[in-house]
C-alpha cells in the first residue's frame, strides 16, 4: 500500500510506501510501525489499519498497489481508486434515543449509539441515569464505518431522568452525550386507616392518610376537618418509592355521624382523594340493674329495673334473657341533655333459676353493653310446727317433741336446731308429690322446775332467713312426791293428835283418882313412909296414913 502525498500516482518518483510486510523499514516515517493489515486477504477481505492516528495524517490520499508480477496476464491499475484520510479533532458525539416512560412507574427503553472506524479495537460504550438490563450491538454501516449501540430497558422511578451516554474510543478519547427525560409523577395508592371509622363521641381517635408515590417533591396532604391536631411525615421504601403520610387526631361529635372524613393529596400535576364514612358511636356512660341483691322468693313476682345512661340520639334497645315475662320500657332526658333509657321486668322465679344470671343487654348501633345480677331463689317454707302443742312436762320425766317443716327447697338442705342443748335429737325427711319435702326433728326433752313457763323453740335455718316454732313448757311435779308430802303431813297431825289424846287421858285419869280419894276421905293422916329399897312392896290394908297425906296435898293443889 502506498501513499502519494497530495498528488496522483502518475508521478512515479513520489510514490511512498505506508505498508510493506516484506520491507517494513521502507515505510515512510509518518506511518512506520503504525500500519497493519486487518482482515483475511485470502478471503478478499483486506483493510489498512492505522494505529495512533494523528492530525498529521489528515488529508493523506491512500491507494492499494499490487505488484503486477504477482497478478499474471493482466494488470489492474489500483491507483485509480484512492482514499483520503479525514482526521477529526474529536469523535462524533453518541446519540441517545428514549422510548416510553411518560409516567413514573412506566417501562422505558434508552438506546445509546456511537460511530467508529476501528473494528480492530471497539470503543467502550456506557450508559448512566437509568437502571435496567442491557444489550450491546456492533454493526457495520458502510465500508470503514461501524456503529456500536447499547440498549437499556428499565422502569421510570423519578419525575426527571438525566441520561448520560459515553463512548471511549481506541486511543483514550471519550465523548459523552446527555439527555433529560421528564415523567409525570403518578401516585401508586392513597389510603386512610383505619378503614372502619368507628368513633366514640367526645373520644379522640387517630386516622392516618398514606400516599404511596415516586415523586421527588412530596405531595401536600389536607383533611376536610379543620382545627384538629395534624402531624406529617414521609419515609422511603425500596426501589425509591416513598410514602408520605398525615395523622389527624379526630374528635367526633353527634353531628358527624354519617359524614365523610376526606384526605386529599395535592401533586404538581393534580390531586387525588380518598375518604371513610364516619360512624359516631354515642357514649353509654353506665348500665345497671336494680336491685343489685337479686333475692327472689319462688313463685313470688319481683320487679327489676335496667337503666342505661347514654348520650345517643337514637335510644338503645333493651332486652332481657328471660322471655314471657311482663316488661315495660321508657326514657327520660336529664338536665345535661344526656338520657336514661330503662326497662322494667316483673320476674317470677322458679327453683331451677337459683344461681343463674338475670341479664340486661342494651343494643346500640355501634355495639352492645351488658350487665347482670345473680339470682338467689329463696324456696318456699310452707309451715313449721311442734307437736304436741300442749307442752305438759313432768319434772324429771322424758318427753318427745317433734318439729315438722314443710318446704320446697331443692338446692339447699335447711337445718333444724332446738334451743335446748345436750338432749337427744333425731332427724329424718321424706319427699311429697310436687317435689315438696318434709323434714322432721325429734327431741327427747327432760324438764326441770326452772323450765316451767319457758319456751321450747324449733328453728329452721335457710340461706335466706330463719323460721321458728315454739310451745310454752308446763312443768308438773311427780305424783309420788306429792303423796310423800301429804303422808308426812298426815303423820305429823296424827302424832300431834295422839300426843294430845295421851295427855288428855293422863289428866282424866288423874282426875278420876283424885275423885276416888276424896270419897274415901276420913282416914287419919299419917306421915308418909319411904319404903326401903331392899324391901319388897307390900300391900296395905286398913288405914294408910301416907296415902292420905298425899291425897290431902293433892286436894290442896286443887
Automatic annotation (TrEMBL):
- Record-annotated membrane-spanning stretches: 486-509
Q: What keyword terms does UniProt attach to this protein?
A: Immunoglobulin domain, Membrane, Transmembrane, Transmembrane helix
Name of the molecule in the record = Uncharacterized protein LOC109099000
List all Basic and acidic residues biased stretches.
Answer: 535-546
Superkingdom of this protein's organism: Eukaryota
Query: What is the species of this protein?
Result: Cyprinus carpio
One Pfam family this sequence matches: I-set
For this protein's source organism, the top of the classification is:
Eukaryota, Metazoa, Chordata, Craniata, Vertebrata
Ig-like domain boundaries: 188-279, 285-376, 382-468
**Which PROSITE patterns did the record assign?**
IG_LIKE, IG_MHC
Residue segments, region Disordered: 514-558
InterPro entries in UniProt: Ig-like_dom, Ig/MHC_CS, Ig_I-set, Ig_sub
